[in-house]
Specification:
It holds the Pfam family Flg_bbr_C. Keywords: Bacterial flagellum, Cell projection, Cilium, Flagellum. The protein has about 250 residues and is an alpha+beta fold. It is about 25% helix and about 30% strand. The strands form 7 sheets. Strands 5, 6, 9, 10 and 14 form a 5-stranded antiparallel sheet that branches. Strand 12 (about 145-150) and strand 13 form a beta hairpin.
């Protein structure tokens, strides 16, 4: 394959990869607690015969943007937002412990506390189970309190405490389940310094207008790579015809 054609095809492939990540961020601009994925083009040497100065621009993930999203008042008792740094511990579908900032909590028919994706919210002793009650609130330290069914408001009792952690951004990595996990596969200790605010949700930290502009720029660059492929192909065909004439 002609080298210029190979470089153009590689560039187009990497543009498509980068554009898919940007599109993923844009699609989640309204997702509660979503953290934008970061990526950039990194220069990597081209392997094989040829000048050692040849490089390809390869799109590589750089991790997750840990900046906090804005907070939106909802007034819903089961909506919570982490204040400052920290994460809510949940149990992923595979049983492993993961961490999320999406505080749109729910109750299953069996009384188990989950996040909006159905992951069980973890407490000090495992998943938190809520008995039938007429009132429920979540304190700043993650303590879940309820007024049992048929009881007066004065009988409010704590039934569990949400596990809140803050292992540090450098120890976290985004898993395929959309949750953050410790890079070494372990679990983080509860951090009493992490606090919640009830009746509030943290929005996505994606900037829609900036991300849309980035997507348009990538689209134009992709079109440029496609034109380069056509030009390289035409040049290769012209060279082949000249060789046949000699």
């Amino acid at each position: 394959m002609d080298r210029s054609l190979y470089v153009a095809m590689t560039g187009a492939t990497q543009m498509m990869r980068e554009q898919s990540e940007v599109a993923h961020n844009l699609a989640n601009a309204d997702t509660v607690g979503f953290k934008a994925q970061l990526s950039a083009f990194q220069p990597l040497p081209v392997q094989g015969p040829g000048m050692p100065t040849r490089i390809n621009g390869v799109a590589q993930g750089l991790g997750v943007d840990m900046r906090e999203g804005g907070q939106v008042e909802t007034g819903r008792d089961l909506d919570v937002a982490v204040q400052g740094q920290g994460w809510i511990a949940v149990q992923g579908a595979d049983g492993s412990e993961g961490y999320t900032r999406a505080g749109e909590l729910r109750l299953t028919p069996d009384g188990l506390l989950t996040d909006s994706r159905g992951n069980l919210v973890l407490g000090d002793g495992g998943p938190i189970s809520i008995p039938q009650s007429t009132q429920m609130n979540i304190g700043a330290d993650g303590t879940v309190s309820v007024v049992p069914m048929g009881q007066s408001p004065e009988t409010i009792a704590a039934v569990g405490r949400i596990k809140l952690v803050n292992p540090g951004a450098g120890r976290l990595a985004l898993g395929s389940d959309g949750l953050m996990h410790l890079s070494d596969g372990g679990t983080a200790d509860a951090d009493p310094a992490v606090t919640l605010k009830s009746g509030v949700l943290e929005s996505s930290n994606v900037n829609p207008s900036q991300t849309l502009v980035q997507m348009i720029q990538l689209s134009r660059q992709y079109e440029l790579q496609i034109r380069s492929i056509h030009s390289a192909d035409e040049n290769a065909q012209s060279a082949s015809r000249l060789l046949q004439m000699t």
